[in-house]
Amino acid sequence: MSPPTGKRRNADKPVSTNQPTHSNAEFKAVPREGVFVDANEVKNSIGTAGTTLIDALSPEIFRGEQVPFARAGHIPGAHNIDPTDLVDPKTMRFIDDASLRERFAPALTKPENRIIAYCGIGVGATSDAFNLQRLGYKNVAVYDGSLAEWGMDESLPMVTGD
């Protein structure tokens, strides 16, 4: 590998255009229990003191002003933490831990509580879950069915407004 070309990006470090070489490795995934939950676990958690629900959608979708899914609104008791608010728009990097704590503060009570994040299809919720892990919360899960699944089932409760 030859020395860096002298070009610099982001962290003002040298950048090389040489093709890197890597040795082969084998990765074996081992799913961790409890990281993803289903609609039944979410339904059973509504109104319980030991679980916090976090809605990772825009405030407009959360309040029911925009309806991109089968029904308007959010799961009762959920707190709205839009993952786009967790990224610095200038650097496109996650905000610092102190700012994260401030953004999540209204939703978080006890560190040992179960936290379930959801969004529309389970993607945005992973950002909230990741950042909660960064803050030291360990009992965090994602409802990957999210509102795409929840909203289709008329027997599951939804509310609008804040």
Question: Would you mind describing this structure in some detail?
Answer:
The protein is of the alpha/beta class. The chain has one domain: 3-Layer(aba) Sandwich (Oxidized Rhodanese, domain 1), CATH 3.40.250.10. The chain has five helices and seven strands. The protein has helices spanning 39-45, 59-63, 97-104, 124-134, 146-150, and strands at residues 7-9, 13-15, 36-37, 51-55, 79-80, 114-118, 140-143. The strands form two sheets. Strands 3-7-6-4-5 form a five-stranded parallel β-sheet. The protein starts with 6 loop residues before the first strand and ends in a 12-residue tail after the last helix. The model has no long low-confidence stretch (mean pLDDT 91).
The helix-strand sequence is: EEEHEHEHEHEH
| CATH architectural category | 3-Layer(aba) Sandwich
- Rounded to the nearest angstrom, the radius of gyration is 19 Å
Query: How many structural domains does the protein architecture include?
Result: 1
